[in-house]
Amino acid sequence: MSSKRVTFSKAREQLSTLIDEVRRSGRAVTITKRGRPAAVLVNCETFEEKVGRPKQKPWRLRGSATWRGPVDVDEAIREVRKSLQRSTEKRVKRMIRDLSER
């Protein structure tokens, strides 16, 4: 569906008319500033479809973890820190390589 394009100044002058038109027709109105799209006026239904409803996540965490008995918290923290250190070192090396190739 193509949208009607109006300049910012024209949209300001005719805002009430544009709102009625969008509500009645369901057709979006693109508002331009200096020839470039700056905003889009859409009806409430379209807005709710695109933005208003929270997206459902395709996965859930509930039930995905299992308890395996006692955990040595200090050891778990050390493992996480080592993993973060390795990850950071890899990123730094990659950044240095990318910068030296420029």
Briefly summarize what is shown.
With 102 residues, the chain is of the alpha+beta class. The protein has 4 helices and 3 strands.
Describe this structure in words.
The chain has 102 residues and is α+β, with helices and mostly antiparallel strands. 54% of the residues lie in helices and 15% in strands. The protein is elongated. It starts with a strand and ends with a helix. The model has no long low-confidence stretch (mean pLDDT 86).
Secondary-structure blueprint:
Blueprint: E1 4-7, H1 8-13, H2 15-25, E2 29-33, E3 36-41, H3 44-52, H4 73-101
Parallel strand pairs: 1-2
Antiparallel strand pairs: 2-3
- The overall average pLDDT, rounded, is 86
Distance between the termini: 43 Å
> Using DSSP, what is the number of strands?
3
Low-confidence stretches: none
CATH class of the largest domain: Alpha Beta
What name does the CATH topology of the largest domain carry?
Answer: YefM-like fold
Bin the helical content: 40-55%
Q: Which descriptor suits the 3D outline?
A: elongated
Structure class: alpha+beta
Number of helices: 4
Report the order of strands and helices. EHHEEHH
Radius of gyration: 26 Å
Q: Into how many domains do the coordinates divide?
A: 2
Walk across the major sheet and give the strand order: 1-2-3
Second rung of CATH, namely the architecture of the largest domain: 3-Layer(aba) Sandwich
Tell me the fraction of residues in β-strands, as a range. Answer: 5-15%
Please outline the major beta sheet. Answer: 3 strands, mixed
- CATH homologous superfamily designation of the largest domain: YefM-like domain
